[in-house]
Design goal:
By secondary structure, this protein is an alpha+beta fold. Helices cover 47% and strands 21% of the residues. The strands form three sheets. The protein has a five-stranded antiparallel sheet. Strands 4-5-2-12 form a four-stranded antiparallel sheet, with no helix packed on it. It comes from Povalibacter uvarum.
């Protein structure tokens, strides 16, 4: 198989891994950093009223289209009321109904929202508004104001800003004097602006919302003017004339209606409160995936039982350890006993810690090697000899654990976590190398195994990397792609440069 096929396969795996990672991180909000938390706000609306003698219905406008924010959860709290939700011109409505009630009543709506940059306003272009119905004097004043504002503006945004400036002048503006009763509050100014904008054939609407504060407490709904410029919705503060959607502003409902209404009752009062808190980003990502219809969270490792998750937290790091070994062997040139023995020893180091792990490993291998040399004199067959070595290793581990316990050395008890079969095979392999190629070669490979295991332990112990691989296991495809590319490498290893240095010097002398 040629290199082109390998390069193509590695490129496909890389693109696939990065695409899945980007989708889960950017679109679904899967946390890239460990212990990452997402800022959320709990918004509560308490609707209080006094019911009449007959059936009563209480209606509350609730959030639907909220640019910059997404709804994570919502609850409707009441006693004895039936609750229904339905779409409405203002967005959505929740209606509490009861056939008979006595005494003051309070129903609650509670929503949990979080920042979502992907959440944008609807992209459908609204129809041109109908011309407002005004008396002759008001119509003439409106037309004069529109003509004056058009001369002083260049586009929809500047037109709206200039219009709001005229409305804010009140008595000082000759065109606004007829409408002074409609400029008392920011809501009145926004409503008057929609009338003038309708006369100019510009779609506009009123948006009501709340500022999401850092401190808990009651908030008052505020008003924004939304104007469509033919491409997108623009936001304006009718009081300050500031353009743009404030960063902490949550749009609650739209239209001229109030936030709530009641039929069959009186004394309506609505209190809105906001509380900020932090929540694990993974929980937010799971809820976001659920609401968007994505099954990524359902098929993630977080859907497994907790005990199984703990197992895969370790298992998923084994390819990372193998990647470290691959680079140290193929590019550096370190020699080890076996390919995956250092990875398993590195896993044991996670419990024993590095220094104690190296000490315990050296003791077990040294003692086991002495026993192996003695067994060689007995000329046993391979399988019985390995059985003897394995038994001796287990006895040595048990003895070290008991001795450590008596001496109060707690790390010595974790020696039982060493892979005893792998250590037995390491002892067997080291003794063979000792006999065939000498003590220097055996010690060199044993030392190389410990160095590689130590480096693998340090890399596999990076908390951020462990979190990243567990949340985005598709990143292991990058390890696979790297292994494919390294598998075609036939160049020098770093430690081989010293071996071939003499040949380079001879070649240089021959050329001269």
């Amino acid at each position: 198989m040629n290199n082109r096929h390998i390069y193509f396969l590695a490129a496909v795996l890389t693109v696939l891994a990065l695409s899945m990672f980007a989708y889960k991180a950017k679109m679904l909000g899967f946390p890239v950093m460990p212990q990452q938390q997402t800022q959320i706000w709990t918004i509560e609306a308490a609707v209080s009223f006094t019911p009449g003698p007959a059936a009563v219905k209480a209606t509350l406008r609730i959030p639907s289209l909220t640019p910059g924010y997404s709804l994570m959860d919502e609850n409707f709290i009441s006693r004895g009321f039936g609750v229904t939700t339905r779409p409405a011109a203002a967005g959505r409505e929740a209606q509490w109904a009861v056939r008979e009630a006595s005494g003051p009543q309070t129903v609650y709506y509670r929503a949990v929202v979080y920042r979502d940059p992907t959440r944008q306003a609807e992209d459908t272009t609204p129809a041109f508004p109908e011309a407002p119905k005004l008396d002759e004097a008001s119509r003439i004043a409106m037309e004069g104001l529109i003509a004056d504002v058009r001369r002083q503006s260049a586009d929809v945004a500047s037109f709206t800003t200039e219009l709001l400036r005229h409305i804010g002048q009140g008595q000082n503006d000759p065109y606004i004097r007829l409408f002074l009763d409609r400029t008392a509050t920011p809501s009145d100014r926004a409503h008057l602006a929609t009338i003038f904008l309708a006369g100019a054939q510009i779609p506009a609407r009123i948006a009501h919302g709340v500022n999401l504060r850092d401190r808990a407490g009651a908030v008052q709904p505020e008003v924004l003017l939304e104007v469509h410029d033919g491409v997108e919705w623009l936001y304006f503060n009718p009081q300050t004339l500031q353009q743009g959607l404030p960063p902490d502003f949550l749009i609650w409902w739209r239209g001229d209606e109030s936030i709530a209404s009641v039929e069959g009752g009186s004394g309506l009062d609505v209190t809105v409160a906001v509380q900020q808190s932090l929540l694990d980003s993974m929980l937010v990502a799971e809820r976001r995936a659920e609401r968007s219809g994505s099954h990524s969270a359902e098929f993630s490792l977080f859907s497994l039982p907790i005990a199984t998750q703990a197992v895969y937290t370790v298992l998923l790091m084994i390819p990372i350890g193998a990647l470290v070994i691959m680079f140290l062997r193929n590019f550096i040139g370190l020699k080890t006993f076996g390919t995956f023995m250092p990875v398993l020893v590195a896993l044991a180091f996670r419990e024993t810690r590095l220094v104690w792990g190296i000490v315990l490993f050296a003791i077990i291998v040294s003692l086991g090697l002495l026993i192996r040399f003695y067994l060689e004199k007995l000329r046993l067959l391979l399988v019985p000899r390995l059985t003897c070595v394995l038994t001796v290793v287990v006895l040595l581990m048990a003895g070290i654990s008991v001795l450590s316990h008596r001496l109060g050395l707690q790390p010595g008890l974790s020696i039982a976590l060493f892979p005893m079969v792998i250590i037995s095979m390491t002892i067997e392999r080291m003794s063979i190398v000792w006999e065939e190629r000498g003590a220097y070669e055996a010690i060199q490979e044993g030392t190389g195994s410990l160095i590689v295991a130590a480096v693998a332990y340090l890399v596999m112990g990076i908390a951020w990397l462990e979190h990243l691989i567990f949340v985005f296991p598709e990143l292991l495809l990058l390890v696979l792609a790297a292994a494919l590319l390294v598998g075609r490498y036939t160049g020098y290893r770093l430690l081989e440069l010293r071996r071939f240095k003499a040949l380079q010097e001879d070649g240089a002398r021959a050329e001269t």
